[in-house]
Structure to design on (305 residues):
């Protein structure tokens, strides 16, 4: 069984009530949620009509993502799903970058969350259900008519497509972040200083691009489910 | 047997990178051409370019993942 996916065996950092193991990356996820939450809280605590500083930055992010998804999804649908998609973007971006901080992966309780199957699979499964819910909300029962278009013969292929999407989302994000980390790690074993730096700089780029790609793909799936053609 | 794993891992990365490299090369070349012809659409082309590059990169990454799995079987 060469190609069987082995479930990674975690040595949990600590266990809650002797039953629930908490691995490193969960702790990092908590920290990321806390960081994004605190930033959001402090930037919106004293809202001003003419934004300055943090509030300005956050308004820019919100405005930019809304415009962006508005182009892909159309105004009314974008209004419903932009919060979720922007959250994906921020979370994946910060997760990817957390792997570049020195000590990630070696310090207890600190590991880039997106460099693990389980986290990316979770995100992809959320996208999967979001697409179904969005399509159902927009077209009600007519949504299930999509699966037998153009002919009922296409039903198996259409169903397969729905299932393959979260799989490819998972593998893309996981493979990029994990592969990047492994390559930097191998280079570090060969040359300890300076040489891995260009690769880490490339990591800054791919981290942002992967976050953007994940959200663009999710939004295009939602657009496919809610669009007129379906 | 372990030697076969090593050879397989090498082939997985090499073939994956080969196809992806050819695709990325032609994609980048075409993008440059279109930007040179119409500099005003540079921003749109750049966005699409990066997205498409990410798609191609994914296929290469699949090969890399398989290689990691195979290398994990050695020793």
């Amino acid at each position: 069984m060469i190609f069987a996916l082995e479930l990674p065996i975690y040595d949990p950092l600590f266990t809650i009530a002797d039953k629930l193991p908490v691995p490193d990356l969960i702790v990092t996820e908590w920290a990321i949620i806390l960081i994004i939450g605190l930033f959001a809280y402090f930037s919106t605590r004293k809202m001003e009509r003419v934004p300055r500083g943090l509030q300005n930055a956050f308004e820019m992010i919100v405005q930019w993502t809304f415009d962006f998804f508005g182009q892909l999804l159309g105004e009314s649908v974008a209004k419903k799903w932009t919060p979720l998609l922007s959250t994906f973007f921020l979370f994946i971006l910060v997760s990817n970058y957390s792997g570049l901080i020195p000590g990630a992966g070696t310090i207890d309780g600190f590991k880039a969350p997106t460099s693990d199957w389980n986290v990316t699979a979770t995100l992809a499964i959320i996208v999967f259900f979001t697409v179904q819910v969005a399509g159902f909300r927009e077209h009600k029962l007519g949504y299930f008519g999509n699966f037998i278009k153009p002919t009922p013969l296409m039903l198996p292929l259409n169903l397969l497509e729905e299932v393959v999407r979260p799989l490819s989302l998972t593998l893309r994000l996981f493979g990029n972040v994990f592969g990047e980390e492994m390559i930097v790690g191998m280079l570090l074993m060969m040359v300890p200083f300076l040489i891995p730096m260009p690769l880490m700089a490339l990591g800054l780029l791919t981290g942002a691009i992967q976050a953007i790609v994940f959200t663009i793909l999710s939004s295009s799936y939602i657009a496919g489910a809610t669009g007129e053609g379906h | 047997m372990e030697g076969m794993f090593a050879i397989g891992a090498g082939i997985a990365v090499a073939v994956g990178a080969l196809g992806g490299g050819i695709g990325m090369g032609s994609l980048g070349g075409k993008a440059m051409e279109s930007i040179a012809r119409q500099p005003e659409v540079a921003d749109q082309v750049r966005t699409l370019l990066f997205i498409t590059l990410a798609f191609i990169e994914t296929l290469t990454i699949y090969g890399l993942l398989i290689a990691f799995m195979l290398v994990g079987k050695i020793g």
Notes: Residues 2-73 of chain B form a domain with the F1FO ATP Synthase fold (CATH 1.20.20.10). Chain B touches chain A through 17 residues (CB under 8 Å).
